[in-house]
């Protein structure tokens, strides 16, 4: 029995090394330079690419809603939504309509992927519903809907997603905000 346990432990170690598994990381935005106006989150931050995500110090930004200010960390938060949605350049009447309120988190190049575990998030100005959709090299893996309020809550991503290369987060209604305080992931490399 002792030999079987040692063999299984050895196989688990070899598999972990072959997959390039790293320890779970908690990505927060508190260590970014404090900014008082929304700024694009840089690609490659914490080994991931961030598309249409902004960061800001909610205590310094006059446009921050109540949800922005209740994070577990002091410092910057990441967000998507509101006036930072993608807009249709064609105006209907005098109103510019938002095309989408979404942000994408993806692998930072190479044969890498990541496994999302959980996040602490809120609706920036009030209750909001977000859909998180996972892809692996362009192939749909799954999606999950989360209902958020202005009080921080922990959301867990389905373990069945496994390793993915892209995660798209979209608000249910255009003009709503999704505020991200931290993200827990495993970064996997080849």
CATH architecture: Sandwich
In N-to-C order, the SSE pattern is: HEEEEEEEEEEEEEE
- Overall number of structural domains: 1
Low-pLDDT regions: 6-20
Shape estimate: globular
Kindly report how far apart the N and C termini lie: 33 Å
Give a quick rundown of the structure:
The protein has 190 residues and is mainly beta.
Q: Can you characterise this structure?
A:
This protein has one helix at residues 2-19, and strands at residues 25-28, 39-40, 48-51, 54-56, 77-81, 86-92, 95-100, 102-107, 113-123, 128-136, 139-148, 153-156, 166-171, 177-188. With 190 residues, it is mainly beta. It has a single domain, classed as Galactose-binding domain-like (Jelly Rolls, Sandwich). Strand 10 (128-136) and strand 11 (139-148) form a beta hairpin.
Keywords summarizing the entry:
190 residues; mainly beta; Jelly Rolls; 5-stranded antiparallel β-sheet; 1 helix; 14 strands; 9% helix
SSE topology sketch:
Blueprint: H1 2-19, E1 25-28, E2 39-40, E3 48-51, E4 54-56, E5 77-81, E6 86-92, E7 95-100, E8 102-107, E9 113-123, E10 128-136, E11 139-148, E12 153-156, E13 166-171, E14 177-188
Antiparallel strand pairs: 1-14, 2-4, 3-8, 4-5, 5-14, 6-7, 8-13, 9-12, 9-14, 10-11, 10-13
